[in-house]
Design brief:
This protein has a domain at about 10-40. The chain has 3 helices and no strands. It has helices at about 10-20, 25-35, 35-40.
Length: about 50
């Protein structure tokens, strides 16, 4: 069963996933693996670089 409550970060993950043509789960995994999880939690990632 999936969670029905969405955190504000879920929209950000979906936006990142759409930008790179991947699934939200894979985008979140990559954020964690790249060591950007704390920055992501603080909502300070800027992908427009």
């Amino acid at each position: 069963m999936r969670k029905t409550t969405k955190s504000p970060g879920e929209k950000i993950v979906k936006d990142i996933a759409n930008q790179f043509g991947t699934s939200p789960e894979l985008a979140e995994y990559r954020i964690k693996r790249l060591g950007l999880w704390r920055a992501y939690q603080n909502r300070s990632i800027d992908l427009r670089g």
